[in-house]
Amino acid sequence: MNIKIYLILILGFTGGLVKILGSILHGSRSLFVDALTSFANLVSLLATIYFYRVSRMPPDHDHPYGHYRLGFGGSFVSLIAYGYVAGIASMELLYSIEYTVELESLYYALAGLLLYGLAIYLSLEIGGFFKAYGLFTISELYESMVTLIAVVAGALYSYLIDYIGAIGLTLYIFYELFSIGRETFYSMIDKTAPQQLLEEVKRVFEEMGFQITDLRIRCIASNIYHGDIRIKMYRTMDLNNAYRLIKELKKYLKEKYNLELVVEIDLH
Length: 268
Prior knowledge:
The chain is about 70% helix and about 10% strand. The chain has helices at about 5-25, 30-55, 75-95, 105-125, 130-155, 160-185, 195-205, 240-255, and strands at about 210-220, 225-235, 260-265. Helix 8 (about 240-255) links the parallel strand 2 and strand 3. The longest helix has 29 residues, at about 160-185. The mean pLDDT is about 85.
């Protein structure tokens, strides 16, 4: 893997560790919950990297159509990770009694914010899949800022402010659970391809003189499509030339749109 990817993992792990240490040593529940989300985010990243690579494996005997949908494994691990930390955070807050927040927690919160900021910067610099991860992880920076405010106010005024901040962060974990679950669900229900792609497939076949009687295309993963098209051909046509054109069109659609298309021919 790229050295920058290792740095992202190290920065993310260290950021979460620093926050956990600060919460244990100096009493902040907000910092504790923030640390839990950092570790959940790191587990999600590792799982997403793994399942993304698996999903790109070529077709084999057990998966003749490819491994694309194994990519959703990352989302399922994310749901488990965030569900686990949501449970821990909820129990920690439920059984918390009056506590003291020391101002030193601020330094750990700042260190965690800096480490995650560097991880996000590297993610955006690498680009591609990691750019999407970096944009998603920006929410960690917002959480860290909430933690900073809660820690300072909790240390200077009342632990209740820190406690309320921790409740807010925990509720956000449940929101992320809902968001990831909804996105995963809608990604797996075989939605039709975008209208623009359907129109493009119709256009290229009709320009070659084929008459389309049916067309179905589904999205099986991000920007990956499977479908079938039924066309009408007449025995008076040059069939060899028609088959050659169909082969070229399938290759064109595969290379440009990542579309695996099965062509059914009604010969009249």
